[in-house]
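Troubleshooting: if your tokenizer reports a length mismatch, compare against these two reference records.
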Amino acid sequence: MLNAESDHLAAFIAKMTSAGLQPVVMDTFAWYYHKVVTGEKGFIYNRDIRPVETQDIADSATFAPYADMGEKMMPQAVMIVLNGGLGTSMGLTGAKSLLPARNGKTFLEIIVRQAGRQHVRLAFMNSFNTHAETVEALKRLHPEPFPLIFVQNKFPKILRSDFSPASWPRQPDLEWNPPGHGDIYTALYTSGILEQLLADGIQYAFIANSDNLGATLDPSLLGYFAEKSLPFMMEVSIRKPVDIKGGHLAVHKNGHLILREAAQCTEDEIGVSRDITRYRYFNTNNIWINLKRLKAVFDRHGVIHLPMILNPKTLDPRDCSSPGVYQIETAMGSAISLVEGATAVVVPRSRFYPVKKCNELLVIRSDRFMYSDQNGLAANPKRRGTQIEVDLDPQYYTLIDAFDARFPFGPPSLAACESLRVSGNVFFGKNIILKGDVVIQHAGDIPGYVPDNEVVEGTLCI
């Protein structure tokens, strides 16, 4: 195995060299590759962790006194937006951030406008899939100043059969995978953006996903982060039943906070990891880092080795008959277990509005939120409850084109709705109001219609 590992690793290094990747990226891949060929799966076991108690982390509800400090630190802060996602689960072939979110404005445009109102420095980490079209979209928006832009690195896919480099001549791009948002630290370093930000007097970075419009650079959180001289801070929130499939925060037996993703759980422990009464906090993927401290880590060690996530996939994700591969990935938040002095803070759910599927897109586009160019996106104070669960029939609403076609006049009113489940091929008219817990059912492929001006409460069979 060792000779095979050496031979294959040489082929991987040659491939990465030809692709123009920097030595630190190749060294990082080689470190993870050794773990893969020696049988490591990246699991985190229940025996090594315990649940987080309230005394382990601070609550941002008490941070109002730090807001003044945060306002003073704004010129030393940057918001870095993770913009590598293609939205393939919604049938998109381009950057998800270019999807219309509110009032005809894309996620990208809303983010740029929010940053402009706050006079916040803005940067985007694109993937090799989203870079070109994002740059073009930003040029059309004419933001001042123009955001910093850099591209995350890529790792070659590994054939599961013999651990050699995957080859797919008909579509060579599929031989590579983005190495997860954990690559943010290495990409900042290798792109030169880290040095540029520090040279410009920027010390604090707030990092968030492009599909989470609730993530803004909050002065009270920035003030707390700066006042406490923290190196790393993760925003977490209380888990709800809808969050059971995601990762959770825990305390390692060494005393450090640790992030465990679902892919890092063994089959027999996945049930315990989904117990929201035991593991109460999830990572919102809103992260704060001190750039000076990050630079010191690279100066000292040269690389950052985050806990590995090993994802078994097919080489072509749209072709289940294509060869099985491993994708090496890492999670940005997992740095919490490695950085001395790293911490987490509890934030309200209002800082977490992710759009992963059309279910969430319906909510963002609805009257549960308000949007204006002056104030940005905000929760509608008249909405019923802070959470709404939406379950649209995946046969008819998974892909964005099919979803849009079924709401030709825009979303129904959801301000008074607590949950919505749609079963069947249902189209919606205009001026529809949904109240309470709503179930809409329709059988057969022939479309069913919710008529104009309908007020729906309870179950509607059409």
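Reference record two:
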Amino acid sequence: MKNRKNVAVIAGATGVAGRTCTEFLAHQPNWDVIAIARNCSSLRELEGSLTLVEADLNDKQVLAKRLSQFEVSHLFYTAWVNPPGGLRDKGQSIIEPMQIQKQMAFAKRWVVPQLSRSRRLHDLFYRGFQRAAGSLDLDQRNLKMLSNVTGVLAQPPHRLKHVALLTGGKFYGMHMGPSIYPGYTTPFTEQTPTHPGHNTYAEMEGYLQEVANGRFSWSVVRPTFIIGPSPKPSQSIGYSLAIYAWLLKALGQPLIFPAGSQAYSAKGHYSSACLLAKMLHWSATDPNGANQTFNLVNGDVVSWEQLWPWLGDYFDMPIEVPADGMSLKTLLKDREQTWDDLRQRYQLPPRPLDSVFSANFLGASLAINWDATYSMAKAEALGFDQTIDTYSMFADLFATLEYKQIIPSKKRV
């Protein structure tokens, strides 16, 4: 008897992780893929065994109706909605990495030591920090979306066998660091406890394990900064770095690292979207991946001290690293006009700057002046031993941005 095809639903298929996972699975033998998003227009260029379904994960009835013609066997849940109130809600203002560092140093010295004296003060402090970090989902919107799609697929006509959930390093408090979270330790292992205060990732993981309860298997994958082609490039550190370099280059500036010497030497990881897609697939199909949680990073530990000179070489720019940092607002003054001039000079499509670049996202990302490293020992011991070189990953992304005319081609400079 011929084996039945696996039928996968990708929830959140237009995000950087979801899109790459969609494209990867659609080219795997014996897989049919259903990509779900509110707007699937950016996915129409993809090829392979792929069906596009436009639906809102908040609407369980619509989801059930539009998926009723399929017999889904696997769910890959990569969706995420940013809660209101975070740095991304600051519009065109610029978040300064050095200011973030000063605020966290102040909190470490004067606020955190007082938290043990009052449970109310403790809760208010961490709630405020989580809100600023964009991870305070008190409405549980992300949990509700996961519940909706899982609830639909757990019922006939579907034959749900596995749910693979994407969360991330904020589970461990990676965004807090030792200043805000006294219990912070690295490298993160899958046994590292979650941080104090509200944690949506922990809620989603707990829900999935509870609802599975032998009905289907599950896996959780926790990456860090995901690097790959994205339909939402303003929320990508890879895109932001490339645009930042070209803006400074157009102004005749060196490639200036604005976040100070401590952030420059801090060690961390990145997560290739391609590698992430492979792990999601492996965790959903290999018996060793079932009912397990895994970290997913490229494998090589890096720092800006290593990456920044490489970026300078890539974009053919000298580098500058002020020990006390520099204001992004000053560096990016008149950035919209500079972008328009750059775009016209190299005949790039008329994309607004804020559609491909977020100074806030760049500033908040570069502000991390503590180590944020991950262990891959568990995945390696259970059979997933693939790695990707971080430098090659960035080079591939920048080549893609040149090909798609998001940044100028070095061949035409």
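Descriptive notes for reference record two:
- The two ends are 59 Å apart (CA to CA).
- Residues 116 and 154 are 43 Å apart (CA to CA).
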